[in-house]
């Protein structure tokens, strides 16, 4: 008999009712009396447990004592309509096999109601809980939606390097990659580390972004996207920061800033709509447990036309709002989450795309406007989260880009390849970046970014 996933049973119960089925999974609870025992079984395919009914005239107490919370079992029996409340159908057990036991005295998830902080310490087991099962299924669905969206639009998936010699952000917060012996580093005559003896013959690090390499792909293939892990060595212990996280970075030749904004809005609405359509039970569970307004907020974003607003206009609204902010607002300030959320949640009551930021607070590669003060940047701002997408039209003019690099004293000796895209066949092009965990955070209603990635990497935390 071929085993059936619980999600498939619940998707079409009538197809299976009256038939013998084989199900496998982990025991969530067991209750009952000397006549009948009820086991809630979950195999990870659904937020919903399947009830298994054991007629104790057919099983012994010794057989049943191994079925404890956390144990894994295989059950065969007849699927019937349930007479009780809370489930459509149940399995009348004919036989079972215990694959793995779980000692009730030592199994950490024996009780309900564990805090999220406690579960972060049990990251190897927390996917078995309802909360993290739901989050990880939503995460998987969103990843699929991302590939589906870009594939349907004719984009090419480009794999950019994880090991790089360039710092895209220019912040220097990178994890170094080396094979040099740390207890006996080779030195040059002037006392510096001799990287010529290293594996790559130069300093290298884990990437902070695939954007620059993505631009190379766009200026050859037209429209590409990257989707992979990125790394930041910032010592930030906040609910919004991870040291290892995933980024989606499309880059498009012949797109201007307006094309870029239109794509970003279409893209993020598509992803959220996909989750609403394919993760209904998980989102409903997360809404019930953590954020009762979650579904309304997701539909609010999908059904709203995003406001397009310049940074200058946004700052004026904030200055004239009369609202007391923790961080001061003035032209030239790098807006904080509280400012962004005010524009979205209080003023416009819609998602906002903010454009034309001061060049001094944005990256060197962004296209400069004619005013000489601003660049064609764009940030997509969402309720509860602030910035969720950041992007720009890229500077396509070699001289302007080179001058900006010199102004900022950015070491470009290892990035001649990037400047070559402006030397040979340069075109208008644009792109943006979406932090995948930020998207999952928004769609699940969770409040800490460490709770939307399977194994969070943060300062002093790389246990699993």
Note the gap between the termini: 36 Å
Radius of gyration: 27 Å
Overall mean pLDDT stands at 95
Structural class designation: alpha+beta
Biggest sheet strand order reads 6-10-11-16-15-14-13-12
Uncertain segments of ≥5 residues (pLDDT<50)? none
Tertiary shape: globular
Count of β-strands: 16
Helix content: 25-40%
Largest sheet: 8 strands, mixed
Order of helices and strands: HHEEEHEEHHEEEEHEEHHHEHHEEEHHEH
Instruction: Write down the oligomeric state.
Output: single chain
Number of helices: 14
Q: Determine the strand fraction and express it as a percent band.
A: 15-25%
Question: Could you characterize the architecture of this molecule?
Answer:
The chain has 464 residues and is an alpha+beta fold. The chain is 31% helix and 24% strand. The protein contains 14 helices and 16 strands. Strands 6-10-11-16-15-14-13-12 form an 8-stranded mixed beta sheet. The protein has a 5-stranded mixed barrel with strand order 1-2-3-5-4. Helix 5 packs across helix 14. The protein starts with 5 loop residues before the first helix and ends in a 20-residue tail after the last helix. The mean pLDDT is 95.
């Amino acid at each position: 008999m071929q085993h059936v996933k619980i999600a498939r049973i619940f998707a079409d119960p009538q197809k299976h009712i009256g038939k013998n089925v084989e199900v496998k999974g982990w025991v969530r609870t067991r209750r009952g009396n000397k006549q009948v025992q009820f086991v809630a079984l979950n195999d990870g395919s659904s937020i919903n447990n399947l009830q298994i009914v054991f007629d104790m005239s057919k099983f012994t107490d010794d057989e049943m004592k191994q079925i404890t919370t956390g144990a894994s079992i295989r059950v065969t029996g007849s699927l019937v309509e349930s007479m009780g409340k809370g489930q459509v159908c149940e399995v009348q057990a004919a036989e079972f096999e215990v694959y793995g036991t779980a000692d009730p005295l030592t199994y950490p998830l024996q009780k309900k109601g564990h805090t999220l902080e406690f579960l972060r310490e049990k990251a190897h087991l927390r996917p078995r809980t309802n909360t993290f099962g739901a989050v990880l299924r939503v995460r998987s669905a969103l990843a699929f939606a991302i590939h589906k969206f870009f594939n349907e639009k004719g984009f090419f998936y480009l794999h950019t390097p994880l090991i790089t010699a360039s710092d895209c952000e220019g912040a220097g917060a990178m994890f170094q990659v080396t094979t040099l012996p740390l207890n006996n580093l080779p030195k040059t005559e002037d006392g510096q580390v001799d990287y010529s003896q290293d594996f790559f013959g130069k300093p290298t690090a884990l990437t902070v972004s695939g954007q620059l390499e993505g631009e190379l792909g766009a200026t050859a293939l037209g429209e590409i996207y990257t989707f992979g892990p990125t790394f930041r060595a910032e010592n930030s212990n906040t609910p919004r920061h991870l040291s290892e996280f995933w980024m989606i970075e499309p880059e498009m030749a012949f797109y201007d800033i307006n094309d870029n904004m239109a794509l970003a809005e279409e893209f993020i609405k598509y992803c959220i709509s996909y989750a609403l359509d394919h993760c209904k039970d998980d989102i409903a569970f997360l809404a019930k447990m953590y954020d009762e307004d979650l579904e309304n907020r997701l539909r609010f974003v999908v059904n709203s036309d995003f406001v397009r607003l310049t940074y200058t206009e946004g700052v004026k609204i904030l200055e004239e709002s009369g609202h007391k902010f923790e961080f001061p607002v003035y032209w030239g300030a790098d807006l904080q989450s509280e400012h962004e959320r005010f524009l979205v949640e209080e003023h416009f009551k819609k998602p906002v795309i903010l454009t034309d930021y001061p060049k001094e607070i944005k990256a060197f590669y962004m296209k400069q406007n004619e005013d000489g003060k601003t660049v064609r940047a764009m940030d997509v701002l969402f309720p509860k989260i602030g910035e969720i997408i950041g992007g720009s039209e890229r500077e396509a003019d070699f001289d302007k880009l080179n001058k900006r690099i010199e102004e900022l004293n950015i070491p470009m000796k290892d990035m001649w390849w990037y400047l070559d895209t402006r030397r040979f066949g340069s075109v208008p092009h644009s792109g943006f970046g979406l932090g995948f965990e930020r998207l999952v955070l928004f769609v699940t209603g969770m409040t800490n970014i460490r709770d939307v990635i399977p194994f969070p990497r943060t300062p002093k935390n790389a246990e699993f």
